């Protein structure tokens, strides 16, 4: 039975897990699926001078959290509350905890102040708080603790907290995953590798460059134990999870070797063949530019997931969609929506498509590309119904212009047939 752990669990000398289990959760933060629910891990550290609470739980699990906390500490013993990440699933019980232990001093990262203020509102004036940065050290409850800021893993505010005498890293969402199993430890729970990688892919991947910076700071600490805010506590070979963050981040980094050929992907959808003909011409035009490798994909024939990996390592993306009922077609939107888990800033973008009378699809796609912080160097190409030979030349020109912009021969050219 995985539903409840009645007692706090001592995971190191004077350190207790006092979190909550949520085995029935199937969707997290609207975007993540979880076949195994999740946990909201919170901890206490007892030292000669009192108790530190590290993180809390989602608000609806507060009762469970306070019940466990009360088994290991009195509220008047709590000297500090460390907040590694201020997302509501870890801070839901913080306002009530502070009311019960108003003498406690809050520690969170410099970048967390705005979220802390939003969380506590005017109540924050009642409490003391310290904003931490990498390398800050102090003796909380009489035990040596240092902080490691890990910005953008996965919010600006995130940090890890290192209990030096136990070499225990409280890592917040870093190295976490959505996997609920009341056996708690990585060497005792079921196989959760898929969950760990899925979490990385959807939560950490867009910030992979920040992940690499964080790993550079964490690896030298050589933690003996990693206690994340979700999922199993990593006591068996904890450094392997740190290294796997490095490997995963590197695997998603585009190949930035100077002088390599650029990759341009052309995606399209077409009901009657007009946008398909445009796509082939855009592809041919782009392919005529030396140093650019161009690939053409009909979205009718593919699952989206593998495209996302291709897109991450590509330098440019062009989308072709007919206008249907004043919009671009759903498979195109599906790809564009799935780009939230990857880094698109600075990639080249373009759009083209056939239309009948109003032609909204192309400008709508361009807006989305700009919203993803992509560079749209030439105005998108719209053609009424089936393209003529002359219009196919325009498509080739458009493809060539985009490809030239990719290899630096940029002379952006405005091609607009809206008035045809
Ligand atoms: C169901 C349907 C709805 C359409 N709605 C629009 C529209 O809102 N605006 C427009 O400009 N064209 C509209 N069209 C016209 C198509 O965009 C046009 O036929 C186009 O050439 C189709 O391109 P394709 O051959 O690549 O599918 C519509 C066509 C269909 C079949």
Automatic annotation (TrEMBL):
Xref: Pfam families: Flavodoxin_1 (PF00258), ODP (PF19583)
Residue ranges annotated for the Flavodoxin-like domain, each copy included: 264-403
UniProt cofactor(s): FMN; Fe cation
SMART domains documented for this protein: Lactamase_B
UniProt cross-references to PROSITE patterns, sorted A to Z: FLAVODOXIN (PS00201), FLAVODOXIN_LIKE (PS50902)
Keywords assigned: Electron transport, Flavoprotein, FMN, Iron, Transport
SUPFAM superfamilies in alphabetical order: Flavoproteins, Metallo-hydrolase/oxidoreductase
Signal sequence annotation: none
CDD domains xrefs: flavodiiron_proteins_MBL-fold (cd07709)
UniProt-listed PANTHER family: DIFLAVIN FLAVOPROTEIN A 2-RELATED
Family: In the N-terminal section; belongs to the zinc metallo-hydrolase group 3 family.
Protein's UniProt name: Flavorubredoxin
